[in-house]
Write a structure and sequence with these properties.
Layout (H helix, E strand, L loop, with lengths): L7 E9 L6 H11 L4 E6 L6 H7 L3 E4 L5 H11 L2 E6 L11 H9 L5 E5 L5 H5 L3 H18 L11 E4 H5 L10 H11 L4 E5 L15 H19 L1 H30 L5 H46 L6
Parallel strand pairs: 1-2, 1-4, 2-3, 5-7
Antiparallel strand pairs: 4-6, 5-6
Helix pairs in contact: 6-9, 8-9, 9-10, 10-11
Length: 320
């Protein structure tokens, strides 16, 4: 499994876990719309006949033993060589008819990532029967907007297309359903060209069960946002933390200083010590941000060089 496949123009990537009720239709639909594409199904320890059905319908089937969608995506990106990578879930919730609209901006060089937007046309709100999923998606969108200044129409969609240079320089850090959030934040932070493509979402058919846990996976997504905020924008994060410590320190310390100026005494030693500690933590947090920001800039330079090397290998100029 370690060796790269021969170069394909479009590779359809389908990560799967127990998708026997729907995988045949998904493969057939994408084969009809993209007859020349290579279709890969990565089976992630399914306990049903997902792999056998996918193989019978002509897909290239591989197995990933490490559980979690992020682990599957990491291995897909390592294994497969193509000009355009179209990733879609195997649950038959995304229309194959939108595949061309997602792939064309990648193939003509006008985008590095296209995003299948389920939200702007209202189909996700109508079809999705899990109320808190809408809330979670909107919460993540607002957090990314607040931190990075970019407003995605749909952050959590599993229907996306990528350029080769995006895939080959993307460091997959998460191992589960946080992968969509990680892809979105990475694309924004690294200034990749992003195009939102509205799609008609449909809910899972009867017999198909979602593997996403609203609470536990939602917490992991929020933790991923915090972790990537620290990795990508450490100066901003630790400056905010420093400002919190500064505000608390001044709130506790100013009355003590005023009292000392009036009386020459410091009767509230515990409060004075706590205020001084908070001001110290403010300085420490700011210094930590400066150090980590320098590290992040070095890492960003190395990543930019890796992008240029990949683009040279691909044989085209320009900037990501």
């Amino acid at each position: 499994m370690g060796a790269l496949d021969s170069h394909a123009r479009i590779a359809v990537l389908i990560p799967c876990y127990n998708e026997a009720p729907t995988i045949a239709k998904v493969i057939d639909d994408f084969r009809r719309v993209l007859p020349d594409a290579s279709i890969y199904v990565y089976d992630n320890n399914s306990r049903d006949d997902t792999a056998a059905i996918a193989r019978a319908h002509g897909a290239i089937v591989r197995h990933e033993a490490r559980q979690g969608k992020g682990n599957v995506v990491r291995q897909m990106f390592r294994d497969i060589d193509a000009e355009c990578y179209l990733m879609v879930d195997g649950d038959d919730t995304y229309p194959a008819e939108a595949a061309r609209a997602l792939c064309d901006p990648i193939l003509d060089g006008s985008a590095d990532m296209t995003v299948g937007d389920r939200l702007s046309n209202g189909t996700y709100g109508k079809e999705n029967k899990r109320a808190f999923h809408n809330f979670g998606n909107n919460l993540v969108r607002r957090m990314i907007k607040l931190i990075y200044g970019y407003s995605f129409e749909d952050v959590m969609t599993g229907y996306r297309a990528f350029s080769r240079v995006f895939v080959k320089t993307f460091p997959v850090l998460s191992d589960g359903f946080q992968i969509e959030t990680e892809l979105s934040i990475h694309a924004v932070d690294r200034h990749w060209r992003i195009v939102d493509v509205p799609i008609a979402y449909r809910d899972r058919p009867e017999g198909s069960v979602s593997k996403l846990s609203t609470v536990s996976d939602g917490i992991k997504v929020l933790a991923t946002i915090g972790s990537l905020f620290k990795n990508y924008r450490p100066m901003k994060l630790f400056t905010l933390v420093a400002l919190v410590f500064l505000a608390l320190g001044l709130w506790l310390g100013i009355p003590v200083v005023v009292e000392f100026l009036h009386t020459g005494l410091v009767p509230r030693f515990p409060t004075a010590i706590l205020a001084a500690s908070l001001i110290f933590l403010c300085g420490l947090s700011f210094a930590t941000g400066l150090i980590l920001d320098s590290v992040a800039k070095v890492e960003r330079k190395q990543w930019e060089l890796a992008v240029y090397r990949e683009m040279d290998r691909e044989g085209r100029g320009g900037r990501a």
